[in-house]
């Protein structure tokens, strides 16, 4: 497997750790299971997540965009090892974000909003990896990989960028809160997910 890289952005490195752990926990018979992303199975969510990491990286570096549409994944890895496939995307994102100074005025992103404060941009890249890790975990019977601390940090990022993206279907409507919700549930509900979803 490719060497793992760190990005200098703690939130992104933690999100990558979460996605890596969940992908490594998927069983060989789990890749076609349904997920909280209603139109996609586990393989398609992985393709989307890895492709988005490449998209963030390529927007920074100017090259290396995914060879497929991450928003129309076909569900086939064409012989590639899933863990290596995910790692390649995370490695590209980590390497790209490592070139972005923490005190930079802004950084390019593939979002419709374009350039964002670097801490928000890195956070959105992390949000994508971590929340799709939760999707895969939920689909395959793994425990939630999201810690309260990571969820709290990701929610702060999400509240900066999600609302304009709902109109394009990138996020579903907020799921109403329930008594007893913790930080993880609050994040998932804000992103249009039911924290109690099960396959």
Automatic annotation (TrEMBL):
Pfam families: MDMPI_N. It comes from the Bacteria. Residues 12-137 form the Mycothiol-dependent maleylpyruvate isomerase metal-binding domain. InterPro entries: CHP03086, DinB/YfiT-like, Maleyloyr_isom, MDMPI_metal-binding. This is Mycothiol-dependent maleylpyruvate isomerase metal-binding domain-containing protein. It comes from Dactylosporangium salmoneum.
